[in-house]
Amino acid sequence: MANPSLQANSIVVEFSGLRALDNVDLTLNRREILGLIGPNGSGKTTLINVLTGQVTPVSGTVLCDGEDIGALLPRQRALRGIMRSFQTVRLFGNLTVAENIEVAAIAKGSSRRQARSGVDRLLEEFSLTDYRSELASSLNYGDERRVEIARALVADPKYLLLDEPAAGMNEEESGMLMQILKRLPEERDLGIVIIDHDMPLIMRLCHRLQAIAQGKTIGEGGVDEVRRLPAVIEAYLGADALEAENHA
Ligand code: ADP
Ligand code: MG
């Protein structure tokens, strides 16, 4: 495969008659970070749910490295290398940091020894080595979320989908997370989709942006280009912001 990617084509999703996604496409390449932006309720989480198989579209296809995976269950897609984080933390509080990650490695079929070495590398990569023997329940919020992402990576995914990973973090915590995320695509031949509302953060991190509003893509391309699109400014910040921008 010349250019491996995770692709959604012409996705339509309806929830009891309401059209949450209306003919949306998305392409995520390896070694890139794609920012998915848009107002609350625009369909961002739903699009991630379609990629992972948590939501079944009315129509449209999902391809992983060229193969149609639309009929696969979420856990089957995880085995193909598509991993996600959730908007809420889901760690085992009564296990240590290292154990939380190890359990995930063993669940995907690693031997105990393989799991250990994968865990060591991740703890290091995520600046968590000092916490390896701490109970997950004792961690502060930012550390806990980093463990959650480290755990998603232990299965060596090819595509990582992050739904507001920095929500609730303070500036130091989110800065630290962004530094880690920035390195991952090259280091791990990984493609990342990240949803976040913090525009300065998204702009520092992402190679490409896709903006959606009311279930439709309203702009995509380079970070600077998309950020300046009037439709994006208006959808994101309201017509007043567009007015202000025009007079700036
Ligand atoms: P975003 O992540 O951009 O805030 P969502 O994808 O969560 O938006 O939601 C898009 C729209 O679909 C919203 O109107 C939301 O209320 C609706 N929606 C999302 N999930 C469900 C669901 N499981 N059942 C019914 N409606 C849903
Ligand atoms: Mg959401």
Structure description:
The chain has 248 residues and is α/β, with parallel strands linked by helices. It has 10 helices and 10 strands. The chain has a 6-stranded mixed β-sheet, with helices on both faces. The chain has a 4-stranded antiparallel β-sheet with strand order 2-1-4-5, with helices on one face. 40% of the residues lie in helices and 25% in strands. The structure holds adenosine-5'-diphosphate (ADP) and magnesium ion. Magnesium ion is lined by residues 44-45, 163. The site of adenosine-5'-diphosphate has 10 residues, from helix 1.
Overall average residue pLDDT = 90
The domain tally reads 1
What CATH architecture label applies? 3-Layer(aba) Sandwich
Structural class: alpha/beta
Q: How helix-rich are the residues, as a percent range? A: 40-55%
Question: How is the main sheet built?
Answer: 6 strands, mixed
What share of residues are in beta strands?
25-35%
Question: How many strand segments?
Answer: 10
Number of helices, counting only DSSP H or I runs of 4 residues or more: 10
Flag low-confidence runs.
none
Which key phrases capture this entry?
single chain; 248 residues; alpha/beta; Rossmann fold; binds adenosine-5'-diphosphate; binds magnesium ion
